[in-house]
Amino acid sequence: MPGSTVPFGLPQSLLVLGGTSEIALATARRLIARGARTVWLAGRPSPALEQAAAQLRTLGADTRTVAFDALDPESHETALGKVFAEGDIDLVLLAFGILGDQAHDERDPVRAVRVAQTNYTGAVSAGLVTARALQTQGHGSLVVLSSVAGERARRADFIYGSSKAGLDAFAQGLGDALHGTGVHAMVVRPGHVRTAAMAGRERIPLATTPEAVATAIELGLRRRSEAVWVPGALRLVMTALRHIPRTLFRRLPL
To answer: Which residues cross the membrane (predicted)?
Structure first.
C-alpha cells in the first residue's frame, strides 16, 4: 500500500470475534503498535466489551464494538456483515471459546453441549461468514485460535478438547478451500495460557501467556504461516504424544 507505515503482511484493520478474550486483546494491542488503526470488537454487549474498546482507543485505534453471540449462528451473517459494510477488514481473529468444567459437564450433558456449540458450531458459522466476506473483498487473513488440547483427547478435558479438535480440523479444511483466493488462513495452537480465567490452577509445563501468543500471531502473519504452535516446542511434544499407545497414554499424568 503506497505511503503505508504498516510492516508488510500486518493488518491496518481487524475484526476480533471474542472481543474480551485476553489473547485477542493482547494481539490487538501488538498490532496497533505496529500500525493497525481500525479495530472491531465483536461479542455479547457488556461493560467488559466496552471497557476493552475504550482501552484500545487510548492506544490510538478507531475501536468499535458489534453485538455478536456465538450461540446464535442465525444472526452471524447480519451482525458481521455490518462490519464489512463499513470497509475492508485485513484480519479476522476468531478467538471466542469457553473451557467449561469437565467434572460438572460430564454430569450435565446440556452444559457439555454448550461448550461444543460455542467452541465448534459457533466457530463454523462465524468462520464461513467471515471467510466469504474476505473472499469478496479479495484479500485478508483469517486467524483461528485453536488449542493443543485438540491434538489428542485427555481424560481431564475431553469435552473441551474434542470441541477444539473439531475446530482445528474445520480451520485446516477452510484454509485449504481458501488457498489461491487471496485470503490467508492460519491456525494457532497455544498450550496452557496463563490468563485471568486460569488463575488459581496449578502451573503446567510449557505454559504461555497472552502476550507470547500475540507475538507468535504477528510472526505467523509476517511469514504467512498456516499453523503456529505456542510455545514452538509443543509441536514436537504433541507429535510424540499422538503416537503413544492408548494404554500407555491413559497412565500419563496429563
So the answer is: none
